[in-house]
């Protein structure tokens, strides 16, 4: 069996706020409608903040899917915060606010939790267990690369570095792309089926999301050079009991990947060609593995550096630590830090920090 998860975040770092209507029109409505019409089961990881922005017709679709058992709603951080950067009180505030919104708007209390950017630390499962969660999504590659815990001694090397170079336009892009495809295909040998039990402050079942599998699906569905839906399915034919796609809904119909736009039809063609039964992620079997997961994310080197090393990010993280109240949620939003954030997204966070300070929502 295979499973499907869609991640939705209308605070997306590289999407202008003025484009939110188009994102809903081009991605959210057609993708959700197509899956529900086909009676395809899937998990939906959407932030509480995003739910509050969705129009009534989309919320109606979600309620229908939940009622029919086709949609499994996950919990997450309310404003897509990078949880390992927050105090434990603020982690819990993010978790609880997100659940409250989903209970109010969708009348559902999630049991599965998706950490934004799959950013994780070993205390998170304890907070999740304390708040009624029984399972958490994690980065599968990070699980494999957690055998050594000190990156200062042994840095994590990406599994397909040439593909990353091609994506960034470094060197000879086509040569890097060809080499990267070979590395990507080779990395699929590391994928294992099913869930794991995480060794953590409080143990919890974890559902791996495999970035390399996501990438194969996206390259095939996007019909990149030397790739198409059938070839992607061929590469993945020996894998079972995994999440076949577990990333952004915005890539389907709205946001191009390196100038290639994935359509709903080409995306679904990968699933159809593979010909596997599609189940909800919670229905995946347990692999029997008990593993430790290092503090990590789903970036190529599995670090948190993207959201911390830049001077603007470091300043936001420092100032956000003193916030309390409503403004804290917007200041903590990861998309102000982002992979390549727009100025307006970053200014939203700085503005929230200033207004909280002026308004007395500040811990001294």
From TrEMBL:
Signal sequence annotation: none
Claim: Hydrolase is one of the keywords in the record: yes
Keyword Hydrolase: yes
Keyword list, A-Z: Carbohydrate metabolism, Hydrolase
Domain called Glycoside hydrolase family 57 N-terminal: residue spans: 19-283
Superkingdom of the organism of origin: Archaea
Family per similarity comment: Belongs to the glycosyl hydrolase 57 family.
The name this protein goes by in its record: Hydrolase
Species this chain originates from: Thermococcus thioreducens
